[in-house]
Amino acid sequence: MSEKLAKFVEELSTLSVLEAAELVKMLEEKWGVSAAAPVAVAAAGPAAAAEPVEEKTEFDVVIKDAGPKKIEVIKVIRQLTSLGLGEAKTLAETAGGKVLSAVGKDAATDAKKKLEEAGAVIEVA
User: Fold this and answer.
1) Considering only CA atoms, which of 107, 116, 12 is closest in space to residue 64?
2) How far is Cα 65 from Cα 95, in angstroms, rounded to an integer?
3) What does the pLDDT look like over 35-47, one tens digit per residue?
4) Do the domain assignments include residue 94?
5) Cα dihedral sign for 93, 99, 105, 109?
6) Among 25, 67, 98, 125, which residue's CB has the most CB atoms within a 10 Å radius?
7) What is the pTM of this model?
8) SS3 per residue for the chain
9) 54 part of a folded domain
10) What's residue 49's pLDDT?
11) Together in a domain, 84 and 117
């Protein structure tokens, strides 16, 4: 590689991702071409070699907010878990607390539905 090209490659290596994307747009406009086809071909190679992504099988049911009906939420937490009244109350009042951990998708969805019906704000992660 000539010294001129090596210097050019070194200069391009200092660009941020946003700057590189802007450069691509500018070159496409100037030369009247599109870089989409070569990028798609390059991306298809590694994607074909990658292992298939496994579907998530375990979920956590996390309480974000007990809402206005805290007593109803506490009752549902007690139904879903083996916690006592005090522990369920503490969990209901703790934003980010895990009501259920590492449960199946159906159990997580069911728990979320019941807790949301009681007035809580729930996240399944």
Assistant:
1) 116
2) 6
3) 665 544 455 555 5
4) yes
5) negative
6) 67
7) 0.55
8) CCHHHHHHHHHHCCCCHHHHHHHHHHHHHHHCCCCHHHHHHHHHHHHHHCCCCCCCCCEEEEEEECCCCHHHHHHHHHHHCCCCHHHHHHHHHCCCEEEEEEECHHHHHHHHHHHHHCCCEEEEC
9) no
10) 54
11) yes
